[in-house]
Design a protein that fits this description.
about 230 residues, mainly alpha, Multidrug-efflux Transporter Regulator, Chain: A, Domain 2, 2 domains, two-stranded antiparallel ribbon, 2 strands
């Protein structure tokens, strides 16, 4: 049985929840932070602010960033935006820019649950370049060759981050973006195969079926590559 959702908090209740850690916080301060776009509480039908526990956590982050790191509002906004897009925040007060997580090293074929799990990470091209060590021109080359596929807002997903990390590693061996086109072609063919295999299984549970088929395709692909590298005479 799922827990009942927490009741929304009034602005006064928010101040009471924060005042022990932040003695100087006031209703006016919370309203100011709201006016600056740092928190956006819901509104009741009669117009009263309704803060959630996530809103309180967000305000706590803002107040700690001001008190402990002396971050200006612009830097705090950038970090909140990054958090909303699935990034972490920087602990170094001298360089408070958001940083993308590194992919796990030596990954095997992802399991079905991982393939079916939604992703929330969204990166700008500059964040992608900074996180992978690629220069902007290299990122643009990967976009031009279809290896990176930003969304309608020009933001990159966790999958683009993994692609860029791999491309950066391959670049150290002289493998450039133009050499990687065949990977995009092969991947698109495998995606088409997954969609064909799903066929009548569209609808409820389709994501789970797609993850199973994708897992089998990736397992087959990895086995063929490993087998090829292990063949006698190589």
């Amino acid at each position: 049985m799922s827990a009942a959702p927490a009741r929304p908090l009034t602005v006064g209740a928010v101040v009471r929840a924060l005042v022990e850690e932040f003695p100087d916080v006031t209703i006016s301060k919370v309203r100011f932070l709201e006016s600056e776009g740092l928190v956006t509480p819901a509104r009741s039908a009669s117009g009263y602010r309704q803060f959630s526990t996530d809103d309180v956590d967000r305000l706590r982050f803002v107040l700690r960033a001001q008190r402990d790191r002396f971050w200006p509002l612009k830097v705090i906004k950038d970090n909140l935006d990054a958090m909303d897009r699935g990034l972490g925040t920087m602990d170094d007060a001298e360089d408070p820019r958001p940083r993308a997580p590194l992919p796990e090293p030596d990954r095997s074929v992802p399991d079905v649950e991982e393939l079916a799990a939604p992703t929330t990470l969204r990166l700008t091209s500059a964040e992608l370049a900074r996180s992978t060590g690629l220069d902007p021109a290299a990122v643009e080359d990967l976009r031009a060759t279809g290896l990176l596929r930003p969304d309608a807002e020009g933001l990159h997903s966790e999958y683009d981050l993994q692609v860029a990390h791999a491309a950066a590693g391959l670049a150290a061996y002289g493998v450039q973006a133009r050499h990687l086109r065949s990977f995009r072609t092969a991947a698109d063919r495998e995606v088409g195969l997954v969609e064909q295999a799903l066929g009548p299984r569209r609808g409820a549970g389709a994501d789970e079926h797609a993850a199973v088929v994708a897992h089998l395709c990736l397992t087959l692909h990895a086995a063929l590559v490993r087998g090829g590298l292990a063949s006698p005479g190589r």
